[in-house]
Write a structure and sequence with these properties.
By secondary structure, the chain is mainly alpha-helical. 76% of the residues lie in helices and 1% in strands. The protein has 12 helices and 2 strands, in the order αααααααααααββα. The protein has a two-stranded antiparallel sheet with strand order 1-2. The radius of gyration is 24 Å and the shape is globular. The chain starts with a helix and ends with a helix.
């Protein structure tokens, strides 16, 4: 089924282990091979990064080995692609212990059961949206690979260098995009769970079980947020590094034109990560609308006190998507932090170029 595509993607890139009860050793071997491939991709990415634009492979090898006095400068687009290496390394380091992998697997299984339990009416629509998300992330990954290859071609690199650099970026970007896809599907399941709570109240018009039903959903929200927050924090770190490094790359490449083609993957990643963070913030927005929904339902004059208690109970629970326990993720906070960070980056770079 389509809701399993996120765990399958994470297992393909080596973040999680395959559910091979009969072949545990084969599953572990595949995971270590996948992680070794990621490590090799990081090494190749670092080795192909420092390359003067327009030079041949022989000239670059002499320059980097110290035969000439010319320095090896980073190739165009390297700085904006560097957060991919950092993000992939953080994901693999944190989810290296088997205990952390089991926690993430249990949360994904819980999100799948939540999705299946509450997607009764809009099941086909939900499957369609999941397919759209899967196709969108796959097309985004393909666009990143094509943009990297085209950028290397415009820089005049050799065929071996283009193949190695493109392969390394493809591996690193696959991990980052799979993590983002995992967060999107988990948050969609949480949003559907909260929406089903309102549908149950409207359908039953019964306030006696509101607190118990909301406590169950709040527990699921807290567990999912605790186990997914690392993925979200890694995406935020990548986004925070991408913005200034992309501007620096644009400055070093000489502005818009052919030199800006290697910067296209960075723009794709910024858009994808911003969308993922905004989807996560929609969980908090959905929870904030529940008290207004309860208050608008006509339960009758005898249940006004129970309605008031239910509204205050849900409002004071402060449910939503929390990062590290107390920080509630909202769309307003995401927009404000992004705006402030962009202003700081542009101001610092403008001041640095004026010196």
């Amino acid at each position: 089924s389509c809701e399993l595509s996120a765990p399958i993607a994470l297992r393909c890139v080596g973040v999680l282990r395959w559910d091979a009860t009969g072949w545990p050793r084969a599953s572990a071997v595949y995971q270590w091979i996948a992680r070794a491939a990621v490590l090799l991709a990081g090494c190749i990415f670092s080795a192909t990064a420092f390359r003067p634009s327009g030079w041949s492979d022989a000239d670059v090898s002499r320059t980097c080995s110290g035969d000439t006095a010319t320095a090896c400068w980073p190739a165009a687009g390297f700085l904006s692609q560097l957060p991919l290496l950092i993000g992939a390394a953080l994901v693999l380091v944190f989810y290296g212990p088997r205990r952390q992998q089991r926690r993430l697997e249990s949360t994904l299984a819980l999100m799948r059961s939540v999705y299946l339990d509450h997607a009764t009416g809009g099941w086909r629509a939900g499957q369609y949206n999941d397919r759209v998300n899967a196709v969108a992330f796959f097309l985004l990954w393909c666009c990143i690979i094509v943009a990297v290859a085209c950028g290397d071609l415009l820089q005049g690199l050799g065929g071996v260098s283009i193949a190695c650099h493109t392969w390394s970026v493809a591996i690193l970007s696959a991990i980052v995009l799979c993590v983002g896809y995992d967060v999107v599907l988990a948050c969609r399941s949480l949003i559907l769970m909260v929406d089903s709570f309102g549908c149950e109240i409207v359908g039953s018009l019964d306030l006696h079980h509101v607190t118990h039903a909301w406590n169950l959903r709040q527990a699921v929200l807290q567990k999912a947020a605790v186990d997914i927050e690392v993925c979200l924090v890694v995406l935020c770190i990548i986004l925070a590094l991408l913005m200034p490094l992309l501007v620096i790359d644009l400055t070093l490449s000489g502005g818009l034109g052919q030199g800006a083609v290697p910067l296209i993957p960075g723009l794709f990643l910024i858009g994808s990560i911003l969308r993922t963070i905004l989807v996560a913030s929609m969980v908090s927005q959905t929870c904030e609308r529940v008290p207004a929904l309860i208050n608008a339902i006509p339960f009758g004059p005898r249940e006004q006190e129970e309605r008031r208690f239910a509204v205050e109970y849900v409002k004071n629970s402060a449910s939503g998507f929390h990062v590290f326990g107390d920080t509630k993720l909202t769309a307003g906070a995401v927009i404000q932090v992004t705006y402030i960070w962009c202003v700081v980056v542009v101001g610092v770079l403008t001041f640095g170029m004026a010196l």
